[in-house]
Structure formats: structure tokens, C-alpha cells
Description:
- The protein is α+β, with helices and mostly antiparallel strands.
- It is about 25% helix and about 25% strand.
- The chain is elongated and about 110 Å long.
Amino acid sequence: MNQDIAVVTTDPASIARIVHDHIKPEIVTIKGQDGQVETQVLVLPKGLQAHSTKPFLDEFRTSPERRQGTATLRDLQSLIGHVNRFKDADSVLYAMNDMERPSLQGVLDYHRQGAEGQPRFGKHRAVYNFPLSNEWRAWKDKNCTAMSQQEFAEFLEDRITDVIAPPDMVGAPLDRDDPMVHLASMLGGSFASPTKLMELSRGLSVRANEQVRQATNLSSGEVSLQFTSEHQDEAGQPLKVPNLFLIAIPVFLSGALYRVAVRLRYRLRAGAISWFYELHRTDLVFDHAFTEACNKAREETDLPLFVGSPEQ
């Protein structure tokens, strides 16, 4: 009667050979489907782990396998120079038009063009985060925010150098193509000069029916209160408060100045005067400044520019 006989061995070499044969990895070739090429797969017994030899080989490289990494530039011209230094025929620019965090980046090893173009890693990049100017941040921060007479006075005193003279709507012939003139005409108001704004902030009386008159003097901090029944100025004449003024500020640090119309508002509530302002269409101002910068980068690098984010 034939029986399988288990052979027990204590020979180390034999044991090692048996273990090796039992856990030996295999390379299996899988036929491709739908015209795909064959693929070889490494099959390991349970408990074993394959390790790439690449880290060991990389230790002996005398130069990197490919360019990768992101350079962060501090001005637009540096981004343009960096992109021109490393670009090729398939490099691209990507612009992010976020009003809070605008940026422009170059992807230097972008995919080759066309449906059949060779894909690439897209890991060699240069980025420029547009720094918003201090003036832009200051005016945007307080936009549509109610302020007391003193808060408004202090804010205007800090930012009065941003305020510019209004268009001459009385003396010289009007430039009907000036959008600021058109805006004033459309709103039926008038522009305040820098001097007028300081007069308002430092003590020009504003009155309303049975409301408190409040005037603030920044040098002494004294406040004068008086009840009245109608809008009047200090001379007893009906009060006229200009509803517009102009500022000229850069959107980006060290950038060109842009005229921005500002609507001046005030409210009398609970016996106190509150002031606030509304910046007129800052989205259009931002878009113009951002587009100008993007056009400069596109023209000086001669690369296509897309608005959005590249593939990660």
C-alpha cells in the first residue's frame, strides 16, 4: 500500500531551501484586454512586502531625475523671468482671480499638447501671490461698516491722503466720457473734496428730527450735544452732505493707482451719528488690475494663460 511519508529534516540548508521555495515570489504575466499591452505583476505570499529599489539607486545619482518643486516669487517680473528661464513649448500659466488671494503660477513641465500628447508630471512650478496694497486692504476692511463720528474721523484722518479732488463739475467743461461724472449724474449727487470730508469728520453738525447733534474735535476729544428738529448746518441753513467722494489707490502693492468712487452715508440712531461708506464696483477695479498683470505675464512669456487651477 502506497502512503505519503513525511520526511523530517534538521539540516539547516535543507530547511532554508524549503522555506525559500515556499515563499518565493512569482512574476505573473497578464494578457492585455481591448488592445492593451501585457502587464507583469509581482505576486508575493502573504506576509511579505515588496520594496522599490529606486531610493537606493537615487543615492548614487549625480543629478536629479527630473526638475520638480515650486519657486515662490515676490514680484511679477521675477515670475516672468523664472518662467522664461525654464519654459518649453508646452509650459502654461494659470491665474487665480480670487479677490482675497489672487495668484499667478507657471507650470513648466505641463502635459504635451494634443489628445495624443505625452503626459508629464507637472511638478516644476513657479508661483506669485499678488500682495494686496495696504491702501486697498484698509478701505476694503471698513467698507459698509458703521462707525461713530469719532471712529470715522480717525479713519479719515489716517486715510485722507488717498482722497483726491473731484472732477470739476462747475468750472471747466465737463468730460462726459468720465465715468465719475456719469456716476455723479446718475446718482444725482455731488463729490466731496478732501477738505470737505475733514470738515465733516471733525465737527460739521448733522441733525435730524428730535435727534442729537454731535461734533467731535480730535485734538481735545470734547463732544458737543444738542437736540434739534431739522437738518441744519452750524449757520442754521439746511445741511447738504455730499454723497460721493473719490479715492485713488493701488490694488496691488506698488501697482498703478485706480480711481474708486465712494458713496458717503450717515445715520442718526438712538441719538448718535453713525457713518459708513460703500466702495463702488471694486470688482471691476480688481478685474482690470488683475487682467493687466496677467496680460503682461502672457505677453512677456509668450505662453497660454488659463484662469483657474492646474491638475494636482
